[in-house]
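Notes, Module 5: Reading structure tokens.

Key idea: the token line is not a picture. It is a compressed description, and you learn to read it the same way you learned to read a sequence, by spotting repeated patterns. We will look at two proteins. The first is printed below with its tokens.
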Amino acid sequence: MKKRTKLNKTMKPHWIWAIALGSAIGWGAFVQPFSWMKTAGPIGVIIGFSIGALLMMLIAVSYGFLIKSFPVSGGEFAYAYISLGRTHAFISGWFLTLGYICIVALNASAVSLMFKYIFPTLIENFSLYTIAGWEVYAMEIIIATLILIVFGYLNLKGTSISGRVQFIFALIMVVGVVLLTVLIGILPSAGLENIKSYFPTNTTALAAIISIVAIAPWAFVGFDVVTQAAEKFDFPAKKGIYVDYFSYFLCSCVI
């Protein structure tokens, strides 16, 4: 049997934390709250995501123990192989691959969407086609392609560069969220009366909360990347549990 190649241990704790946080907190956490509050109301969103966080915590705890027991690369694929065998691991691996391909495309197009809102006159040029009522422009395609090339290059250069870049971006995001919270909170017009009505008037409070619980797993997914990088930890695997927990906790706070 061919000896399994082991990965170099280059990932530091704060890099893993940044990668996990950056994978879990995407553009949806900043763009979708308006839609969520329209569907469930401010209190409905808070309660729904709190319930979703508790449910996802079971998965986070399970990941923590798996990292400690099996500090290898592969994440869910490796765990399926160890516990259930090749067939289940094959199916799990392909579903993970297809899922992450979709996420990569989604996040690349999200960057184009951000530019479209900030620089509409620049982006809305060279119209290509319309799909589902949405106008697609060549500039959006160019930006998304460039983003994929840049981040693909960073990953090909090695996890050290990728980890550093992710850490810088994660710090910028956390600082930005804190500043926005503080600046909004000190406004003279800020107050709890602005969040009324607490629940939508066209449905029951229970239905509103359940509608948010149903999408909560999508909002929290991403911190599982800690398990996939476990073999590259430049620190004891048991510390990965705490990195995973802290990333998940901060993810819950931001969402």
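Here is the second protein, with the sequence above and the tokens below, as before.
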Amino acid sequence: MYPELKSPRLYKSRGIDQVKLFVDVVRKNGLEKPESLKKTPVIIQSFDEEAIRRVAVELPTIPRVFLTSKDEDVTEARIRQLATFSTGIAPEKVVIARHPEMVARAHAARLTVTSWTFRGDEKTGYPTVRDEMSYFLYTLGIDALFTNNPDQFPRRR
């Protein structure tokens, strides 16, 4: 499972602690336990740094991915900072394309790199979405990606 905590601050302003709800549900179902994570992997993602920081403290066994569409989040200093509370970074694919060296920096900081969103109906400089995904996975070395076209995923044989 790869849920996203969307707009936690908005919910907080309405009296709802989204992070607490997530933490409570995970604990209630025992999903944070190592044996459960082997059977039912859970990775939490959010654009909200405070939410990821809270999950790091309250559910340290759950992998945490910081989503971003900002170039400043893939600098060497920022990646080192993110590695203190997250287990991965998920820049929008255009950010990775502008800063392909960030993949090696993130890996050196022990962060996974996930990118989003690869779509067959989007105009890009690649002949197909399969070619685009292949480049990001096998040339740039990202660890995972989100796509609207899983049938086009470029599996290595």
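Summary for the second protein:
- The two ends are 26 Å apart (CA to CA).
- The mean pLDDT is 96.
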